[in-house]
């Protein structure tokens, strides 16, 4: 059977009732439909806006690249013009200098020829010899320096200034004057030779100059040494500033080697074999040199104080050398930061790349003082690498190890120098005064020990246990 209001399905009649929506529901559906239509319109509008913004960004990026390329072209042209102008100026200066030198040579040669034609007498021979010597000196002076041999144009003014000072002071040397000998040592910054210069045995450090920074370090070292004269600083004699491959530093030859060799010698870092008095005196020598640097105006920072940079002269006096990392102390402390020097002797603030001043040298001297007093390489008891040691110092967990049997005043000085707070470290003037007192006391003890036989030597040994000292006091009484 079939019903008009439904379909027959398996014999059963299904009647579909019409869906009836309430007015509220219909109103909500209409609102949703309007909202959806509005959202579609808004989305279409926003898409157009986004497309416009993207196009604007693309055009701006293209313009930026165009301006950058234009700026690079202008920079290249400017550099080209500067090089051309500098080359022309240098060529003009060289031409003017050659013209003047040729005129001087011609005048001196004419004078020498005229004197040679005069009747021979003692006076004329002396005058001719003097004229010939002046001619040779003039020719030698011409060959001293050729600033154009250095590829760093912005350094030419500094080079020319230093050359002028060297000529006026008489320390500027020509390579032909220096007769090289055997190699004395080799380091990261160059090779040192034994040599002869102007009739004296000297040491010549041939500095490696491969960059503008290395040339600047060499110029600073020459300036520092030329301005510094002190009994405990290696005497500066002269310098060669010829070209990139001939930057030499001439100093007095130190026959005693380095302080490290004097202290450790062939025995290695096994312990002291020099009397404590001598080791304390060498520490005082170094301290006096650093006090001289501190007293300069402005003060000089060595920044690489260690036994291998201290040299022994023929009389056994220690002299501070190797000023390749030295810097004048700037008026603003904020300009000195960074890691410079040797890890074992580097201050914690320098390892941490913090602002530092002359107190960084005080820390390095404190480590050197501990090495002199103990006779051991610093931190060797830790069995750590230099980098690990530096990190331990930077974290304020590691200081030089000092045995308790050392004289109290020396222990106090070491601890004061190696204070983690730079402001708590003493200045070198104070350290010199304290060390002088400590050395004087050690000298008296040594004299008393030498004069008093066995008991005197034991009494003079200020590091013996207190129980022994009391027994010796009873025996002596």
Automatic annotation (TrEMBL):
ATP binds at residue 205. Pfam families: PK_Tyr_Ser-Thr (PF07714). It comes from the Eukaryota. Residues 125-140 have a biased composition (Low complexity). Residues 178-439 form the Protein kinase domain. CDD domains: STKc_MAP3K-like (cd13999). SMART domains: S_TKc (SM00220). Keywords: ATP-binding, Kinase, Nucleotide-binding, Serine/threonine-protein kinase, Transferase. Gene3D superfamilies: Phosphorylase Kinase, domain 1, Transferase(Phosphotransferase) domain 1. Residues 83-103, 121-140 are annotated as: Disordered. InterPro entries: Kinase-like_dom_sf, Prot_kinase_dom, Protein_kinase_ATP_BS, Ser-Thr/Tyr_kinase_cat_dom, Ser/Thr_kinase_AS, Ser/Thr_Kinases-Pseudokinases. The keyword ATP-binding applies. Belongs to the protein kinase superfamily. PANTHER family: SERINE/THREONINE-PROTEIN KINASE TNNI3K-RELATED, ZINC FINGER CONTAINING PROTEIN KINASE-RELATED. This is Protein kinase domain-containing protein. It comes from Tetradesmus obliquus (Green alga).
């Amino acid at each position: 059977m079939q019903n008009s209001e439904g379909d027959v399905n398996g014999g059963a009649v299904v009647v579909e009732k019409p869906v009836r929506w309430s007015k509220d529901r219909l109103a909500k559906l209409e609102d949703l439909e309007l909202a959806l239509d509005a959202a579609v319109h808004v989305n279409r509008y926003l898409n157009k806006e986004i497309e416009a913004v993207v196009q604007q960004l693309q055009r701006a990026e293209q313009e930026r690249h165009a301006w950058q390329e234009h700026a690079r072209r202008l920079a290249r042209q400017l550099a080209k013009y500067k090089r051309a102008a500098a080359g022309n100026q240098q060529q003009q200066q060289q031409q003017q200098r050659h013209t003047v030198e040729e005129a001087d040579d011609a005048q001196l040669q004419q004078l020498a020829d005229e004197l040679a034609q005069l009747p021979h007498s003692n006076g004329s021979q002396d005058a001719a010899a003097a004229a010939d010597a002046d001619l040779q000196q003039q020719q030698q002076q011409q060959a001293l320096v050729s600033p154009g041999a250095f590829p760093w144009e912005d350094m030419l003014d500094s080079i020319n200034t230093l050359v002028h000072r060297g000529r006026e002071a008489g320390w500027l040397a020509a390579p032909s004057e220096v007769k090289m000998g055997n190699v004395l040592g080799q380091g990261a910054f160059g090779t040192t030779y034994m040599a002869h210069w102007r009739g004296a045995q000297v040491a010549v450090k041939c500095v490696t100059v491969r960059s503008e920074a290395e040339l600047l370090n060499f110029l600073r070292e020459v300036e520092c040494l030329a301005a510094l004269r002190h009994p405990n600083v290696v005497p500066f004699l002269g310098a060669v500033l010829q070209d990139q491959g001939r930057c030499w530093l001439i100093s007095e030859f130190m026959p005693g080697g380095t302080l490290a060799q004097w202290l450790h010698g062939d025995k290695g870092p096994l312990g002291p074999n020099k009397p404590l008095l001598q080791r304390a005196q060498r520490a005082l020598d170094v301290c006096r040199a650093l006090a001289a640097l501190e007293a300069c105006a402005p003060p000089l920072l060595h920044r690489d104080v260690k036994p291998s940079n201290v040299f022994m002269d023929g009389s056994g006096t220690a002299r501070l050398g190797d000023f390749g990392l030295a810097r004048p102390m700037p008026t603003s402390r904020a300009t000195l930061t960074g890691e410079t020097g040797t890890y074992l002797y580097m201050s914690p603030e320098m390892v941490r790349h913090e602002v530092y001043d002359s107190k960084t040298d005080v820390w390095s001297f404190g480590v050197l003082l501990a090495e002199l007093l103990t006779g051991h390489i610093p931190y060797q008891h830790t069995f750590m690498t230099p980098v690990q040691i530096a990190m331990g110092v930077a974290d304020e967990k590691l200081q030089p190890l000092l045995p308790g049997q050392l004289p109290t005043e020396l222990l106090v000085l070491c601890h004061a120098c190696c204070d983690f707070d730079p402001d708590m470290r003493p200045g070198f003037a104070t350290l010199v005064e304290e060390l002088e007192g400590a050395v004087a006391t050690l000298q008296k003890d040594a004299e008393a020990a030498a004069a008093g036989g066995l008991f005197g030597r034991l009494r003079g040994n200020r590091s013996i246990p207190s129980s022994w000292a009391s027994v010796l006091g009873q025996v002596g009484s």
